[in-house]
């Protein structure tokens, strides 16, 4: 889906840099990236902490070009409150999607929660788990390889820089 559908001011696809050089591989289509983010079962969120990075697997939904994540871990919640810069990536090491962005709010967005409940066949209770953390992407990196450790080379790459404002949560 085009990013303009989500109300973003500008979304530019740029060449991804690999090993210090601009990639000359085929460009990934945004639709593939959008689908990977929508269908992912687990999102690995990395927040800055004092000492060392604190990656944690969380559940969430990709909605209107924003991630709504269930971050229940108190250490990660405190880290995000202190510094909203986060990196979120999906499970795969060969079909890779990485979102770099900012946690912009804690949302009790009823539509996001309904999407979450449908996706996981769950009833998300805000009073028990806390509000979902809304992450607004700034840069999305993605690539596909033909094998592990780059052995069979990168096949497609993409980098999107999102500028302007996406739709407000809620």
Can you walk through the features of this model?
The chain is globular. The protein has a single domain, classed as Pnp Oxidase, Chain A (Roll). It is α+β, with helices and mostly antiparallel strands and 170 residues long. The strands form 2 sheets. The protein has a 6-stranded antiparallel beta barrel. The chain has 4 helices and 11 strands; from the N terminus they run ββββαβββαββααββ. Mean pLDDT is 82; it is low at 1-10 and 166-170.
Find the structural class using helix and strand composition. Answer: alpha+beta
Spans where pLDDT lies below 50 across 5 or more residues? 1-10, 166-170
Q: Strand order, biggest sheet?
A: 5-6-7-10-9-8
Beta-strand fraction estimate: 35-45%
Total E-strand runs? 11
Number of helical segments? 4
CATH topology (level 3) name: Pnp Oxidase, Chain A
Using the 3D structure, state the CATH architecture: Roll
CATH level 1 class label: Mainly Beta
Order of secondary-structure elements = EEEEHEEEHEEHHEE
What is the C-alpha radius of gyration, as a whole number of Å? 16 Å
What is the name of the CATH superfamily?
Electron Transport, Fmn-binding Protein, Chain A
What general outline do the C-alpha atoms trace?
globular
What fraction, in percent, of the residue positions are helical? Answer: 10-25%
Average pLDDT level: 82
Summed up, the domain count is: 1
């Amino acid at each position: 889906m085009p990013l303009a559908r989500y109300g973003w001011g500008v979304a530019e696809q740029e060449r991804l840099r690999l090993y210090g050089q601009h990639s000359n591989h085929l460009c990934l289509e945004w639709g593939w990236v959008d689908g990977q983010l929508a269908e992912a079962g687990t999102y690995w969120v990395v927040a800055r902490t004092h000492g060392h990075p604190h990656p944690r697997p969380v559940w969430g939904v990709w909605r209107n070009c924003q991630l709504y994540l269930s971050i229940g871990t108190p250490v990660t919640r405190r880290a995000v409150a202190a510094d909203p810069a986060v990196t979120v990536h999906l499970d795969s090491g060969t079909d890779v999607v990485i979102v770099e962005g900012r946690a912009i709010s804690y949302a009790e967005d009823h539509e996001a929660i309904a999407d979450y409940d449908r996706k996981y066949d769950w009833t998300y209770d805000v009073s028990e788990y806390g509000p979902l953390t809304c992450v607004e992407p700034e840069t999305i990196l993605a690539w596909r390889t033909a094998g592990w450790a780059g052995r069979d080379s990168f096949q497609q790459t993409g980098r999107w820089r999102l500028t302007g404002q996406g739709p407000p949560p809620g």
